[in-house]
Amino acid sequence: MFKRSRISDNCPRYQPPGVASAFGESHFLTFDGVNYTFNGKGEFVLTRVNDRLHKFEVQGRFEQPKPRHPNMPKINETRLMAVVARDNLSSVVEFRVRPTAARWQYQLFVIVDKEYVYFPDRNLRTQYFKGVTLYQPLLMYNMSHIVAMFDSGAGIEVTFRKGHMTSCVYLPDTFKNKTRGLLGKWSGRKDDDFTSPDEEVYVPPGASSYQIHHQFAMKYRVTEAMNDKVGRSLFFHDAVQFSEYDDPSFIPKFEFKLFVNAISWNMTFCVIC
């Protein structure tokens, strides 16, 4: 009886969470370990679960960086600049990179239900909202690293480091085989990661970046209008209107080599945090 009742030291029933990430200049690592790049401009579904038991949404905003000098040509790539999430009936939590001139103290804007939230001292390191807890890790004081844990067991970890934003998404095992979005269909298989929202198109992982862009990723673009397959934008458009971010006609460069050390650094970050 004792052996059956006590918690085992080796955790035989423990199911590790699914982990996926979006980072930097539009790099993605899916829940099943497929890495690729997608340089869409606008707001897109990172992952979405919409069934009878769970309704979980994470969206990312990707913006085209401005040239360092006015007379330089535009850069034909995009970067992750904001992430927003909601779990069932929880508060809507948004993380947004601050403009360069506004980073003298804090690196990120944190917005909960359209209200700006701050972590000014250690007494407010953990803050509770409807269905979600926000936490700034120890030894962090500049809001460059924030964790959001939702009541469903899902979590998001957002960091801003050396000019690049990284978002790691953690999902409990109960979400398996239910996700759709740029972070892939979490099924334990790589061949179905690039599944369209209507599940009618399956793009193989070895497809060209052009195919991935047009046949898979662009189908997860969200707008301010509701769409049954991808939802609608959850972002708070207070300072800049949605139309200023959204550009479905944007044509990126498709011959982009994904450096191995970038993937290695990102995987290390997601595992140790």
Describe this structure in words.
It comes from Trichonephila inaurata madagascariensis. Pfam families: VWD. By secondary structure, the chain is mainly beta. The protein is built from 4 helices and 16 strands. The strands form 3 sheets. Strands 3-2-1-14-13-12-11-10 form an 8-stranded antiparallel β-sheet, with helices on one face. Strands 4-5-6-7-8-9 form a 6-stranded antiparallel β-sheet, with no helix packed on it. The chain has a two-stranded antiparallel sheet with strand order 15-16. A hairpin with a 5-residue loop joins strand 6 and strand 7. It is globular. The two termini are 36 Å apart. The relative contact order is 0.21. The N terminus is likely disordered.
What descriptive keywords fit this protein?
six-stranded antiparallel β-sheet; mainly beta; about 270 residues; globular; 4 helices; about 10% helix
Q: Any chance you could write out the topology, listing elements then pairs?
A:
Elements: H1 2-5, E1 18-23, E2 27-29, E3 35-37, E4 42-50, E5 55-63, E6 79-87, E7 93-97, E8 108-112, E9 115-117, E10 126-129, E11 132-135, E12 145-150, E13 155-161, E14 164-171, E15 194-195, E16 202-203, H2 209-216, H3 242-245, H4 260-272
Antiparallel strand pairs: 1-2, 1-14, 2-3, 4-5, 5-6, 6-7, 7-8, 8-9, 10-11, 11-12, 12-13, 13-14, 15-16
User: Termini separation (Å)?
Assistant: 36 Å
Biggest beta-sheet profile: 8 strands, antiparallel
What is the subunit organization of this protein? Answer: single chain
- Give the overall shape, derived from the CA principal axes: globular
Summarize model confidence as the mean pLDDT.
88
**Rg over C-alpha atoms, rounded to the nearest angstrom:** 19 Å
